[in-house]
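Listing S7. Sequence submitted for prediction.
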Amino acid sequence: MTMRTPLRPLARILKARAHGENPDLIERENLARRHEAMRERTHSRAAARLGLLAVAFGAFYLTIGIRMGHLAASEPSEPVASAPGAEIVAQRADITDRNGRILATNMTTQALYAHPKVMVDPKGSAQKLAAIFPELDAAVLERRFTDGRSFIWIRKVLSPEQVQLVHEIGDPGLLFGPREMRLYPNGTLAAHVLGGYAFGAEGVHSAEVIGTAGIEKAMDARLRDPAQGGEPLTLSIDLTVQATVEELLGAAITALNAKGGAVIMMDVRSGEIIAMASAPTFDPNDRPVPLVSKDAEASDSPLFNRAVQGVYELGSTFKIFAVAQAMELGLVNPQTMVDANAPMIWGKHKIKEFEGHNYGPLLSVTDVITKSSNVGTAHIALMIGPLRQQAFLKSLGLFDPTPLELIEAPGAKPLIPRKWPEIVTITTSYGHGMSASPMHLAAAYAAIANGGIYVKPTLLKQSGPARGTRVMSEEVARESRKMLRRVVTDGTASLGEVPGYEVAGKTGTADKPKKSGGYYKDKVINTFAAMFPASDPRYVLIVTLDEPVDTSGPKPKRTAGWTSVPVAAEMIRRIAPILGLRPQLELPDRSTLTAAGN
């Protein structure tokens, strides 16, 4: 405890008075000493506080300086996700065909970005970059380099040659970041199956590769799943068959002046799609921009998948459904004679045959299919009735969206009449007034080919036959196949015969509908729905052509028998050996053989 000295100590006051001195001087002297001591203590406390404050400010600015130095020494990056702690998943599994051949894989490349504040020649660099990348504008680049930004993406993917050219510019503000991109080594092959990719969340060191269309988008979660350990996604597609199909489809479109076309080849037991093509096509490595013109139709774009998204009236290919159902119900058999007298008058409607033919007055059910009689099919459909007809078509999947692992498939819904009076029953029986996709048709024909079981089509490789739903008896399926075989041997698909492979099928020629109503007289959708070998079918082949015309003769020919059928025949001739199908010689009918005499 500090003892304070009194300002007027009594002993000194008395002594000063004894010597005749002024006692007040003693008080002023003591007061001055006390003030001096107080000043020293206050100065010491202030100096200590200032020292502590200086240390605090020094530590604060040192921390900021260290952080700024660290940021200046590192490469800039953009935010990669809105959620805290989210990471970019860059790895994506390969896609292969059924034999393990690569359809889609990954490749490491470089992305180009700029750090404008450390650029030494923004104007010169902008001009040189525009010379390397013609799609870039030098003036726009220069403005962006000089408007105070600290980070600018220039290009997301560069080729090795472009990387070297940018290196030669030599500006320290131009920087590269590693990129994993998707590569489709076969170019346009199976483009509509694969779809395409884009970059999702990204930073300067990595980018998220996501699917934008086709199987890439439909199976995006599977392809990006780390739990799969990079295991490839194996498709049902056979690369060799796919290449053959696309080559022949392209040649047919050119030769027949068609607007486009589609081909589907399906294994009737497993539901596997062995090949699927749509033309015109595109290269998924450089996926085109979708059409945005108000006047443009979706089908005008090469991105449009005609095999899945194309919903068409498929014409006489539907006739076998009416006949098969009537046989299943016990209403007819292959020899039953039905009314085929044309034209058929139904209320205010007139049902006619192609080019005014009259196949009547009667035709057997087999000949109704062989000659493709509208009137005969109409009378069979009336025996069935609207409700039973709808139920059977539903069992064949013709009322549902396309059941396929493509992102575009759920939107491909058949066009079904709102009401179903008897006139709709008639027109639907021969494929008019109701629209479906070629993929729908392939699945429905597969049910006839495999003995009466409806199996869903799939683009994923299967280990064996698929489980399905029985829609008709084996006997009805067998008799239906015999009729379809007669169409090729004696009917409208005679150009579809391929020696050794017993082709069976049905032609369909449908007038294209106008947007304003009614139908074009000179524009058609032609389809040939085939299966082979007819005695024990393994595959269904659907060939659809949009607005084909054969101009090789004196008169233009637009029917499927002259357009889609020969194309399908050439495909089967080329593909069957690839699939390991050995040609079988068909023995002639014994009743036609004549014994040789001596």
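Caption to Listing S7: primary sequence and predicted structure tokens for the chain studied. The domain at 241-578 is CATH 3.40.710.10 (Beta-lactamase). Residues 246 and 418 are 37 Å apart (CA to CA).
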